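Incident review: delayed structure delivery

Summary: a single-chain prediction request sat in the queue longer than the usual turnaround. Root cause was a stuck worker, restarted by the on-call engineer. No data loss occurred. The affected request and its eventual output are reproduced below so the record is complete for anyone auditing the incident later.

Affected input:
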Amino acid sequence: MTKLMWAGAVAGLAIGGAAQAAQAAQGSYPAMAPLEQYRAADEAALARSAAPPSIANDAEVLVLGAHGYETAAKGKNGFVCIVERGWANDFASPDFWNPKIRGPICFNPASARSVLPTYLKRTEWVLAGASKAQILQRTKAAIAAHRIGPPEPGAMCYMLSKGAYLSDGGGHWHPHLMFYTPRLPAAAWGAALPGSPVLGGDDGGIDPATIFMVPVDRWSDGEPAAPMKM
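Output delivered after worker restart:
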């Protein structure tokens, strides 16, 4: 999956592990809210804010419809910008059904072909009324049947939007790039080591992919970001 909430999990460090554990224990979002609560005002513009205008202006834009994502604008450069919702999370996340989640993300061509379709299919299942348990079962079956596979070489995305809300634990967190690979340990990229700017590594999830994340110092509009707090 796209795992936009990898960033949300890191953002949760800002409120501390105990607070995250308390949030998870509360089960604040045990089921899907009414669809209208997941709607976003001016969603196309929010989706484009994931990447610099030099990329986003020529990207395809998808917006959430009644049965799945729909094309709001055709693109010319192979990039696809969307706004992910909470069900992009891992299944154990307390934000899975959180209707406040808005994750503007712009996929490059390789990730648009090999990563995005899994999230789009999950969204169709969600909007058709599938439970989290049913979605998990279908995902496992799709992986076993090789309908969900590793990302293509070079798959990455931009998450540089100031309008993002990635988790109740950290809001929009920090502008960053995400890189998708087949399953790899953190050590393969020198991730999560003292002084390394790279976060991520194999998180033990069910997906045949690993996400490495690199925070950057500017939002998509060019404004400097505040220093990252970890």
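Verification: The first helix runs from residue 5 to 11.
Action items: add queue-age alerting; document worker restart procedure.
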